[in-house]
Records
---
Amino acid sequence: MSLEPNSAKILHIRTMSGSEIVVAADDVRDVRSLKQHLQSKGEGSRFRMLLMHGDRLFKDDCSVLELPTDLQMVSLNFADTSEDQVGDLMEAAFLGSVAWLEELLQRPQDPNRTLPDPLGRPPLRRHTALGAAADGGNAKAVRILLEACADTEGCAASESDEVPALAQAAAQRHVQVVRILLEAGASTESKGILAGIRVTPLLAAIQSYRPQGPDEKSMEIVQLLLEARADPNFVGQAPRDVQHDSRPLVAACQGGHLEVARLLLEGSLRGDVLPPAARAHVAPALVVASSKGYLEIQRLLQESAPTVLEISTPQQMSHLDSFTPLLLAATWGHVGIVRLLLEAHADPHTVYGPDGLTALSEAAAGGHLETVRLLLGRQGLIP
């Protein structure tokens, strides 16, 4: 075996198909990095490779200096795997136990195996180790599983939820995992069920699990997804109770949001006059303000449209069966995400469901002043 200096060493690797791959020893450190190099050339997962010279097998930590210049590459089939071993792989992935994960994948074990339901029900669609790693936010585990050729559309699943890894990472605000999965080609439009709602990764990022709505991590994820061409106008289907009127002014008055109501009225003025379409909203808003005892709002409405005599009542609780990322972001009042979606050409004029809700009415109902201002500005109602 030649022990020529590393800088002059050229490795010749013979594949099972009979072709030869030539690698400069300077390009790799050890057997593991050599396998990674071969994987980048399309030779499959490094976990299924063996590198040999005659009967001698070289382990991953073997230095390139110790390798002969001619090697044989063998590609292994996946080993038989028990349900316990599949469960172990998912647990290692969720916990981010890199050493345990490497050990299991070296068997080699199929990273895309799923577990049957313990009660004998139809198996979950694609609940895989990659979904578990994404759920746990373990970037190293995600990278290792992708090296093992894990399906990027593998799901994280529970008894009621099942979402692709990218959507789960987005919902959990795992920014680095989202970035890795996007780089690996995960679909921005894969759909799943999260908390009973049909979502894409973009909707999952906005919906999140946080009672107070999206935070700055969510906003960063939204930006990453939009840069990856996620559809800002996707319409999801889910039942949802709506406890406010679909008209922005009425919704703002129901919530007692004085400054939002003032802004909406200012945005409706044509000169110093409210046009008929806007005045039609003042009457039900006035009824709401009066019935709830919001005296300042009542005074504002009376000053804005003193001649309104029409009697009307707000709509009752209704049922919404469609929504988009913009509606969801407006509901949370996350002005940064709303701005990103509008810049990505989300349509602020879209009407949602049979009740006629809009992003503006949702923002108004929540009293989200800056979001209302942004939406009015985009619609050309205020400068």
Note: The longest strand covers residues 70-75.
---
Amino acid sequence: GDSIDGVSFSFADGTIRELAAGARVVVAEDVAAFVLRYPGSAAFVAGEWSGGLSNSSERLRLMAGDQVLADFTYSDQWVPATDGDGQSLQAVNEAADPSSLGLADAWRASAAIGGSPGRAEGSVPGDSNHDGVFNSSDLVAVFQAGKYEDGIPNNATFEEGDWDGDGDFTTNDFVFAFQNGSYVAAAVKGATAADTALEVDVLDQVFAQTGRKKSRGAVV
């Protein structure tokens, strides 16, 4: 049969078979090492690839059955900052025509060292209202969305509480957000007694699982 150079991975053999709208998935060389480097990432890692890629240039192809979703050749010289300095190579426009992925202008370096695997760059884990802070206003918003522990698979977005990228809004999302960000407690206008009670209940569960403790106005 035909031989394949480079890396190979079949999502049919991976741990993630479905993605919610806007969700992301990661394929790693070493899952254990990846999860150690990025705590809380296990929920969106589909598995390990086999083989390896050239550091200089190689062709990449992503397929769904017989349909080619993306097919391009990358170059080591596209973005020098991603060549060994810790920043990841990211698409400038994820919604662009896949045919543009073979152009240097379609790529940029991540803003943060190590990139932001499993989530959009710049998004703070837990910051569902995108105001730049993970606080009680985000908790009120996601509780009101009604997706928390609802038993319906793959029906939650980031804005509705799915912060770990597995398609659902569960206590695991709070654990992920607390391990990867900083929660600031504050009173929220419009919060009901039920909102506050649920917030306290969930936070108590998170504290128990993460070992975090409450301080005045914040979680540390």
Note: Confidence is low (pLDDT under 50) at residues 213-220.
---
Amino acid sequence: EQLGFDSFITDFGVGGCTNFLDGVNYGSSGAGILDETGSLSGELFTMNIQLYNHKITVSRIGKQLGSDEVAKKYLSQCIYVTDMGHNDYLNNYFLDIPTTAARCMPSNTLQHPNELDDNSCAYKLNEDIQIFNTKLQTLIRELDGKYEDAAFTYINSYEIDSDKTNEAFKFTRESCCNVMASGGVPCKSLTIPCANRSEYVYWDGAHFTEAKAWNFGKRAYKRQSSRDAYPYDISELVQLKLHDNDGDIVNHAQL
């Protein structure tokens, strides 16, 4: 909404998606960077499958716009968002151990009630995810310096999902709906969720409420500190003027 969209981006393959020019969502719940991640969650689209689906989108846009060259120009104006990696930790290597800012998720605090820090968050392997985040930021800097026809940025979800950010919410460790006492993620069937969901950070055992997601999105769009996004927040990213392979200037604000 902050970028000016008046509706959600269409999911790839849903309802015979044809409106590719307004954006496509390839997201798949439980998926990760590695093909094996999420194998216990049932059928899903891994990152490799999502990249393959994007190739299909590129081909269809080429046909829709009349040529691959025109499509290439159009696609160079787009923003590409990748939100992958947490499932590779939570649902793969550290399946039974809480990690990342996810250490504060209800599903993890319920699983490890005797392993909580002063903030009532499960603390194990927090150092591991910080190592990952640091190396990811280094990679972003390398990519941003290597390709002049593209701009890369890192949205620091760990920093944004901090206790300070959550001060606006009354319930920061509990879920709005009832989940399994052993630390489940989905809401229990046939249960009534909380009526005051805007006061909760978590909807279920792992996912944000709309109020928290909106709060998160605002800081990703317009950072409140230099640690929220590096080197650009989203509002800055869309205003960048880059040179494409033909030497033409491309304004990424033209979505």
Note: The two ends are 13 Å apart (CA to CA).
